[in-house]
Design goal:
The complex is a heterodimer of chains A (380) and B (361).
Chain A lengths: L10 H10 L22 E9 L3 H12 L1 E5 L6 E6 L9 E8 L5 E8 L1 H14 L4 E3 L4 H13 L5 E13 L11 E11 H10 L2 E13 L7 E10 L3 E4 L3 H22 L16 E4 L8 H12 L4 E7 L4 E7 L5 E8 L2 E6 L5 H14 L4 E4 L3
Antiparallel strand pairs in A: 1-5, 1-6, 1-11, 2-3, 3-4, 4-5, 7-8, 7-9, 9-10, 10-11, 12-16, 12-17, 13-14, 14-15, 15-16
Helix pairs in contact in A: 2-3, 4-6, 6-8
Chain B lengths: L9 H30 L7 E4 L4 E2 L11 E2 L3 E5 L3 E8 L11 H10 L17 E7 H16 L10 E10 L3 E10 L4 H9 L1 E4 L17 H16 L4 E3 L4 E7 H12 L14 H13 L3 E3 L5 E6 L7 H5 L1 H10 L4 H24 L3
The chains are: A alpha+beta (380), B alpha+beta (361).
């Protein structure tokens, strides 16, 4: 992409220059040490996605629907220049994105160095629309907590990780629900340790939609004061940003979260009855650490949640005292039976077709809209 | 004016579907109890199970000599133990001695049946079990005993039992089976079942959605077709811009075979029944035609499904309306058209509502 020469260090231009000089996408992570700290509002932004096949063809198809102009950059199959069509601020809405293999099978990163406008208007839109061929993964609360702790445990002694702000959701009391969202959303500004922040959220039964973390350095050897040297953001919907300490964020945050998602998606492989030569898979279970369905109201709430599952049709066989419904996903034709027969778990029985993408979508939806649990194969 | 009072409401439809699924689970529960009983000591014990196997009656059969009997389940352990099971989830009241047919069905199995997985095809003695809903189990047991006591029928020669089944909610959902009448061999299995066994419903979830009886509510088959087969097939199907539907070509025979493989039984062995049967699927497709979700081509076996993304409401609520359409179609009024108009209007409202919910943020 042609850009006029800037008098000072331009991180966007530097990134574009480095990345376009790479002979292979696998060498991408080698450029991270060469990136300097970014100015405000510019960040290295990554969307972690699950994908099998040829992303070029997907992105070409999606761009037509999303009204985004996309071209292969320098004839590279993994670098794309993109811009929104017909916007008033073309420069803010155009940029370069790289499609890089992650550290786990079928996991990829869509990466830019950009301002938020390009990311929100162009990249996120492309990624969201590329479902089901490519799907952004979901990060659970405990996985985000783990990743931040791993980062903290692997930084120098005079550094610490604090949470600066977060968007949190919490279930609204039943009595308040009439005709309203089931959730309250709060934005909080803090400067608090990772453990404190997550413990507080747990106590209040809240979960993060996104949070901003800071890597902070001690002012002096004996000082109790810290100052921020790098900032980053994690969104539950598979996105991580940062403005410095790129290698550490890559190794300890992104790779950790990608690993959890990969493990889950591995569990979702080969679940459709047809692809298993008509021998049904054992159901998958979402296990909760409490007997949440002891209260019939929670079964009803689950039922109300599933009726709102986007881009799907539902047939409810039974609603109370146990729950049984069938959900069909319009995006790729997958379908599942959903059962609640025990107080502490939801069973998902894959039907004729059941793709990993559709399973990730439905479990993420249950995690986000109802409650997070541990997903595994059900065994008696 | 059509009388709609004899059309069941959607909750009754759901009730019938639950009864059908519970019967399948009851059959599976019995198989599991027997399998666990025999495999406890030796997990590799050979086990045969069939849901709907054609057995041949002998010339001495007291009901239908030299004929075919098709129990709902046939279970065999090694070459020396077997059981035929008849399942009755719903039983009418015993007006005009209607229960006698069921008794005769059991007596038909009280024979040296041929068709077991043995060299000779025989297995003596084979157990006979009637699996019956808890609401009728005691009354029916008394009825059978009274027939024997009054000399109206002779005592069963083969070990015969009545086993009741019902779902019960404890900490979790269980399916409970309990022998309430008769005897089984071996004695320790009989004693085990007399004490009752609770099987976790979670452990009974399987791909099997049909057995050798037609579901009473066609909506059951409609939902399975729509949700799992048509939703899969509409991807890549031709989109009709004017009608805003995807057109899916359907061959009745191919569709039947597909559902047999997915949710029923399909076998090339002559004794094995295949289900769901073609006419069950045809009935479901004809119901879609009534709802204007399909049309029948001149060629006998061919339909075209008009697939819509039916968002924002329970499919049973939609599909059960074919009963109203059928009723009104028969009536000499224009209610049929009115119903169709109302159906399309409601669909449009639901689709628009759902598209709002799903709009990109």
């Amino acid at each position: 992409m042609a850009r006029s020469a800037a008098p000072k260090y331009d991180p966007i231009q530097a990134f574009e220059s480095w990345v376009s000089s790479l002979s292979s996408p696998n060498k991408f992570f080698g450029i991270l040490p060469m990136l300097k700290k970014f100015d405000d509002h510019i960040q290295l932004r990554e969307s972690i996605i699950y994908h099998k096949g040829d992303f070029s063809s997907v992105i070409e198809r999606i761009s037509r629907i999303a009204k985004i102009e996309v071209h292969n950059y320098n004839s590279s199959p993994w670098l794309f220049s993109a811009r929104i069509i017909g916007e008033d601020f073309p420069e803010e809405n155009e940029g370069l994105l790289a499609f890089i293999p992650g550290k786990y099978p079928n996991m990829y990163r869509v990466i830019t160095v950009s301002r938020s406008l390009f990311w929100a208007n162009v990249v996120r839109k492309l990624v969201k629309r590329s479902y089901p061929e490519a799907m952004r993964v979901f990060f659970k609360q405990d996985e985000i907590h783990d990743a931040l702790k791993i980062l903290e445990n692997n930084t120098e002694n005079n550094l610490r990780i604090h949470i600066l702000d977060g968007t949190l959701k919490a279930k609204r009391d039943t009595g308040q629900n009439r005709g309203r969202s089931q959730f309250n959303t709060d934005r909080v500004w803090r400067d608090q340790s990772v453990d404190e922040m997550f413990e507080e959220a747990l106590e209040k039964n809240q979960w993060f939609t996104s949070l901003t973390f800071a890597i902070q350095r001690k002012s002096g050897k004996d000082s109790q004061n810290y100052f921020t040297i790098a900032k980053g953001k994690i969104s539950k919907f598979g996105e991580v940003y940062c403005d410095f300490y790129f290698e550490e964020v890559e190794e300890f945050i992104i790779t950790t979260l990608e690993g959890y998602a990969s493990e889950r998606l591995e569990l979702y492989q080969m679940r459709g009855i047809r692809e298993r030569d008509y021998k049904p898979s054992p159901p998958l279970e979402i296990k909760y650490n409490i007997d949440i369905f002891d209260e019939v109201e929670e079964i009803r709430r689950f039922g109300r949640t599933m009726v709102k599952y986007p881009d799907s049709s539902i047939a409810v066989f039974h609603g109370n005292p146990y729950y049984h419904a069938n959900i069909a996903d319009f995006a790729d034709g997958s379908s599942f039976d959903i059962w609640i027969l025990s107080p502490d778990r939801v069973l998902i029985a894959p039907q004729a077709r059941s793709t990993p993408q559709a399973l990730e979508r439905i479990t993420s939806y249950i995690f986000y809209q109802f409650r997070e649990g541990v997903v595994k194969e059900y065994a008696e | 004016m059509p009388n709609e009072s004899d059309i069941p409401d959607v909750d009754e439809i759901r009730q019938k579907i639950e009864e059908y699924e519970t019967t399948i689970m009851g059959l599976r529960a019995i198989c599991k109890v027997i399998s666990d009983h025999y495999k406890a000591d030796n997990p590799t014990t050979p086990l045969h199970i069939s849901f709907g196997r054609r057995m041949t009656t002998s010339s001495a059969n007291c009901v239908h000599p030299n004929n075919t009997a098709t129990p709902d389940a046939v279970i065999q352990i090694e070459d020396d133990w077997g059981m035929v099971v008849e399942a009755k989830r719903t039983m009418p009241q015993n007006n005009n001695d209607r229960w006698r047919d069921t008794v005769d069905q059991l007596r038909k199995y009280d024979d040296n049946l041929l068709g077991w997985w043995t060299q000779s095809g025989e297995l003596i003695p084979a157990n006979i079990t009637l699996l019956i809903d808890v609401d009728r189990s005691i009354d029916f047991s008394r009825y059978v005993q009274s027939l024997i006591d009054n000399g109206e029928i002779s005592a069963f020669q083969n070990p015969t039992s009545i086993i009741e089944f019902f779902k019960k909610q404890e900490v979790k959902q269980f399916l409970h089976v309990r022998q309430v009448w008769g005897r089984l061999e071996p004695n320790n299995l009989s004693q085990k079942l007399e004490g009752g066994k609770s099987i976790s419903v979670e452990g009974l979830i399987d791909g099997q959605r049909f057995y050798d009886q037609e579901p009473e509510a066609v909506e059951y088959t409609m939902v399975l077709l729509w949700q799992t087969v048509f939703t899969e097939r509409y991807i890549g199907a031709k989109f009709d811009e004017s009608a805003k539907v995807w057109l899916i070509d359907v061959d009745l025979d191919e569709l039947t075979e597909s559902l047999q493989k997915l949710y029923g039984q399909k076998s090339n062995e002559a004794r094995e029944r295949t289900f769901p049967r073609r006419k069950w699927i045809q009935k479901a497709l004809d119901a879609f035609v009534l709802l204007d979700f399909a049309f029948h081509l001149e060629e006998k076996n061919k339909y075209v499904v008009k697939f819509k993304r039916l968002r924002g409401g329970d499919l049973f609520q939609r599909f059960y309306r074919h009963r109203i359409s059928a009723k009104r179609k028969d009536a000499p009024t224009n209610f049929g058209q009115l119903e169709l108009f109302e159906t399309n209007k409601l669909d449009q409202i639901l689709i628009e509502k759902d598209e709002d919910v799903n709009s990109d943020d």
